[in-house]
Write a structure and sequence with these properties.
Layout (H helix, E strand, L loop, with lengths): L1 H23 L17 E9 L6 H8 L6 E2 L1 H13 L3 E10 L6 E9 L3 E6 L6 H11 L6 E3 L2 H17 L6 E9 L2 E8 L6 E7 L6 H12 L6 H17 L7 E9 L6 E8 L5 E8 L5 H8 L9 H17 L6 E9 L4 E9 L5 E8 L5 H8 L12 H12 L7 E8 L4 E9 L1
Parallel strand pairs: 1-4, 5-8, 9-11, 12-14, 15-17
Antiparallel strand pairs: 1-2, 3-4, 5-6, 7-8, 10-11, 13-14, 16-17
Helix pairs in contact: 4-5, 6-7
């Protein structure tokens, strides 16, 4: 019996093996396309950037390393955010993605907030042209733009790239970058050698024309001597301190065509020599006024300018300030006055137009009196002549307090002062303080 059972088992196994061999010999059908096993990773159908101002969307996405058609999910977006954050160019970076309308992919957006402190670049004392350095930096930085953030990582990265370029020119002096005031209220990022520049020991003037050189040297001394020399800054100082001296005499086209420097022989530093071209004298022609409710004769009296005489732009500025003060006294606290020139070079005449923007009218709001008792406060309030709703005069509070002192209303009155508060509805609240 045992022999029979073993034989049957052997036959069954052989038959099973043969059957399996026959089934395997048939060609298998091609596998059906399977849906993504991880629904969190789908192709990107659209890809946009929000919050960019200095950078293009293409620049941002190039750094993020995301593209349309790419299969992406949370890990890819997290990595993209980390790449953008690492540049130091952004204050904040985020992202969002939602299913596309066709349900086959994602609509994705990178959300960025650029650094608030972004400034243009300037190069100084480097043996390369501005164009050469900008071309090099544009190749190095996918986020290259007209302005760059003033962050430490960014400044160090740019200084390193400039070092690399100079090395190709066989120059191996390290470069640094820092934020400087190129002009009042005008900040730039300056890249220059780490080695400090020589300071200005003395400024001399040549060909000064009708003005004595000593006058010019006295004017420039306080603003220039002792500072590190920079030609652009020197030219700015010349415009602010020396040009007005000539324009007060009608020489409105004065120029400073040449600025030279040499080591000082008696002290440490350099001597700067400025060549002056004063140009012809221009006479003041017609003076007009636009944009004001006041009469031309009243404004002309305030400006107090003499025509057919050498144009004196010190007096033009004084006239501007007189008109502005008059507007402030009439309640136009935000008024602007801009003197504009119309130059006739053939006749050497300059016509002048004061362009006036009065702005909104401000009126008196509330009057508060501090430091007086119940008996004396009504007296002062009655003396106060300016009524609520009337045009506010900026001079009136101090004028009124001066009158109170002159009349000797209070014995032993020590000090007085006034405070004002400008309200969004164009009213001005006044507070008078009396210290007895």
């Amino acid at each position: 019996m045992r022999s029979f059972a073993l034989g049957v088992s052997a036959l069954l196994l052989m038959g099973l093996g043969a059957a399996q061999t026959r089934r395997a010999s048939k060609p298998a059908p091609p596998p059906a396309a399977a849906a993504p096993t991880d629904p969190a990773n789908w192709p990107l159908e659209t890809l946009t950037v929000e919050g960019n101002h200095n950078y293009t969307a293409q620049q941002v996405l190039a750094v993020a390393q995301l593209r349309v058609g790419q299969v992406a999910g949370k890990p890819e977006f997290e990595a993209a955010r980390d790449r953008l954050t690492a540049t130091g160019a952004f204050d904040r970076v985020g992202y969002r993605y939602t299913p596309a309308k066709d349900g086959k992919g994602y609509d994705a957006t990178m959300e960025i907030v650029e650094m608030a402190q972004m400034y243009p670049m300037r190069f100084q004392d480097l043996p390369a042209t501005d164009a050469q350095l900008r071309d090099w930096l544009a190749k190095k930085d996918p986020l290259f733009a007209t302005k760059i953030p003033a962050t430490k990582p960014e400044l160090e990265r740019y200084a390193k790239w400039i070092d690399e370029f100079l090395a190709t020119q066989n120059v191996h002096e390290p470069v640094t970058g820092k934020v400087i005031a190129d002009a009042p209220g005008d900040l730039v990022i300056l890249f220059r050698p780490v080695k400090s520049r020589p300071s200005v020991a003395r400024v001399k003037f040549e060909n000064t024309g009708d003005l004595p050189s000593g006058l010019l040297q006295t004017k420039i001394f306080d603003v220039a001597v002792g500072l590190e020399y920079d030609e652009q800054r020197m030219r700015l100082m010349l415009e602010n301190t020396i040009r007005p001296l000539y324009e007060a005499r009608g020489m409105i086209h004065v120029t400073f065509p040449k600025i030279a420097q040499e080591p000082a022989k008696d002290v440490e530093g350099i001597v700067v020599t400025v060549t002056v071209e004063q140009g012809p004298v221009y006479k003041l022609g017609k003076v007009s006024f636009v944009g004001s409710d006041s009469s031309q004769s009243e404004l002309s009296k305030l400006a107090n300018l003499k025509t057919d005489k050498p144009a004196n732009f010190d007096e033009v500025k004084a006239g501007q300030e007189a008109i502005l003060h008059s507007l402030h006294r009439s309640g136009f606290l935000n008024a602007k006055v801009d003197p504009r020139r119309d130059v006739n070079d053939a006749k050497h005449i300059v016509d002048l137009t004061y362009v006036i923007d009065q702005g909104p009218l401000f009126t008196l709001g509330r009057l508060d009196i501090v430091g007086l008792d119940l008996e004396t406060e009504p007296v002062i309030r009655k003396m106060w002549g300016l009524q609520p709703g009337r045009a506010y005069n900026v001079d009136y509070p101090d004028y009124f307090l001066g009158r109170v002192k002159e009349q000797g209303i209070f014995d032993n009155l020590k000090t007085t002062r006034s405070e004002t508060k400008i309200n969004p509805d164009n009213t001005v609240d006044v507070k008078l303080f009396f210290n007895k």
